[in-house]
Amino acid sequence: MGRGSCWHAAAVDLEEWLRQQCADYSFEVQGVFDARGDHHWPLVAENADDLIRQLTEGGHILPLPKEPAALANILEVSIVDFLLLALSGLSTAEGTRGTERGYPDLEIAGEAFGGGYHAIDVKVARRKATKRGISKNTQSRITLYTGNTYFRYPQLHWPGTPRPFDEYATHLDVIGIYTLDEDAPGRVRDLEVIVQQPWKIGSKQRSSTTREYIGAVVDIEDLRAGRGEFDTPEAFYGYWRKYPFKIGRVVQQQLDRLLREQR
Q: In this predicted model, what pLDDT tens digit does every residue of 135-176 receive, in sequence order?
């Protein structure tokens, strides 16, 4: 599970700092700008709301995608941008954006949070809609980790990760939960941002039937409270590191190469 003593020493301060920052976050992406439009130039706006109104009336604003993965990607980028800006105000902390399909989404280093490296992964989930209205659950199970690579072999430096999993002093998730608004160009309504240690929201279920993903609990109140299916980090890591994930040909080739390099 990484270096346990260091992990707990730094987690509380960083966790609380993230909660404080995310309490001020709002998703302000109003749609996609289309350069083609129908209005007179120059366009003069009194404020942001007036600008959006004029751009919309002029046919410049196209709606964001409704497809969950596409919309989640936009939200994730926005949240990481927000946190990077917040980190830029700290003289003893540095944030680095991760790769698009790698882990983590944001790496934090510096003395502000006790030194070492800290992995911040951003997740986005839609509230489940039912015939009776909006459910108390997420539409799909949030993915915490890829189970058959960097998580299963935490001492190895896997492609797409800045460093081995075990070298992170802290692992934290920033989770955005929203209701889909099909009538609004920005699509996102009632956004809530939750910060949790991944093990605290872990379930014993995979988040995909076709991919080797570790899933979180789906009840939104459980996500808020950090009330997963494991009582301790040791129980979470023990369960999922023993889980019989499949290792495909490509992953096996990567694993063989990394083990050779380690020897």
A: 999 999 999 999 999 999 999 999 999 999 999 999 999 999
pLDDT digits (tens, 9 = 90+) for 219-237: 999 999 999 999 999 999 9
Could you report the per-residue pLDDT of 168-216, keeping only the tens digit for each?
Answer: 999 999 999 999 999 999 999 999 999 999 999 999 999 999 999 999 9
Q: What is the pTM of this model?
A: 0.91
Q: Does domain 4-29+64-256 have CATH number 2.60.120.560?
A: no
In which residue ranges of the chain is CATH 3.40.600.10 found?
4-29+64-256
Sign of CA dihedral 7, 9, 10, 14: positive
